[in-house]
Amino acid sequence: MGEFRGRVLSVASECVPLVKSGGLADVTGALPGALAAQEWQMAVLLPGYRGLAARIARPAEVMRIDDLFGGPARILSGRAEGSEAWILLLEAPHLYDRPGGPYLDETGQDHSDNPERFGALCLAAALIARDGLADGWRPDLVHAHDWQGGLVPAYLRMHAPGTASVLTIHNIAFQGLAPASRLHPLRLDPRDFYPGGPLEFHGQIGALKAGLVMADRVTTVSPRYAAELALPEFGMGLEGVIAALPDPVAGILNGIDKAAWDPARDPAIRPYSARAKKGRAANRALLFGEYGLEDGHGPVLGIVSRMTRQKGLDLVPGVVAPLLERGLRLAVLGSGDAELERAFEALAAAHPGKVGLKQGYDEALSHRIYAGADALLVPSRFEPCGLTQLYALRYGAVPVVAPTGGLSDTVIPASPAALGAGVATGVMLPRVDAGGLSLALSQLCDLYEDPAAWRRIQANGMAADFGWDRSAAAYAALYHGLTGGAD
Hints:
CATH architecture of the largest domain: 3-Layer(aba) Sandwich
CATH class of the largest domain: Alpha Beta
Distance between the termini: 14 Å
CATH superfamily of the largest domain: Glycogen Phosphorylase B
Protein name: Glycogen synthase
Mean pLDDT: 96
Helix content: 25-40%
CATH topology of the largest domain: Rossmann fold
Number of strands: 18
Pfam families: Glyco_transf_5 (PF08323), Glycos_transf_1 (PF00534)
Pathway: Glycan biosynthesis; glycogen biosynthesis
Strand order of the largest sheet: 3-4-5-2-1-6-7-11-12
Structural class: alpha/beta
EC number: 2.4.1.21
Number of domains: 2
Radius of gyration: 23 Å
Family: Belongs to the glycosyltransferase 1 family. Bacterial/plant glycogen synthase subfamily.
Low-confidence stretches: none
Oligomer: single chain
């Protein structure tokens, strides 16, 4: 490949295959390889949560930090097992070696020191930019993700001025607020904390707001979501900050790792392809068995999702019963809000053989749902990009989606015009409410009863290309503009 154009440090709270709670991990895990094809070298700085160091192949210590918010820390460099991503793991046992998940403790509450845990990640990034690693590697640009990386530009301004920075918003609903009393413990510059200042948001420290205001460029994960962020119903209180940015938010659509998500080579399923779909029928039969479903001669609708109101799943129990009588079957994988979990438990109990429910998260089972379901439901009230609909398209499960964010950018709804032109790839709710969901699922059943139309929609989806090539080129162009390309 020759020399790289430049070096990028990606700062994130999760990254596949090491730690994942949502689509952010898929993106940060896929970007390094996609950018290498664009001649940009990317390392991913990740918190050293419990057990992660053992999953780094041949780790090498490349930096020590004597005091990182209450204890020593070191950075280990290596490759994640089963991945080509270059990981820089921030080992700080006093911050990360504990039970629970990346954000929540074992009782399901936020870790009380989350401001320090992710502030430390951001400060470590700035120290890498200032001092470089033991082998001399130093980034030309730091790319931070969501509120957990939001303080990166603030620390860069203090420790490595002149280092370019990019902040990507994956979900503006999570903003990383902390009491103003944490300003000194976080070692932030008090001159940046005043009403309306870079660090201040309604009297608190706002990590995401700080990143928005202080980064050289702000991006998000789809063009539609970039436009929505300036609207009160989507901006979550930050729409004014977004509108005042000197450069518009760049909407760069997420891609998927086509090697990891390939029905022809997926070890979790019976392989098949767009040209040879026999294996898909076998996966469908296996899904019936796994979920205890009875064939109603209608479409099998999969749901792979966190159970939250954002995802629109509260609408499902109230509208699905009449459609079950039309032959619709439901296979659900998810967990989250306790009330929603109980609602789906009641739905499954009321309709045995028609609704199957598995709670929690199971990566292999999610692949089997994409491969065996006829359709996949994503009725989100807002969805910055969404990856589940992209996996569904690739696997031949017709997506049923809400008209928002990246869902609108990636699914061509089966309108009469799109059906007539032969370009439809899915079904879109006319609006995100019970009536809109009912109309969309009725249309899904109608389409399923027209085998020729169904095959065309399914084939269109499987032929769509949502790999990383175009998006990686857009990121590379953005980096080049901020750094001069280091050619």
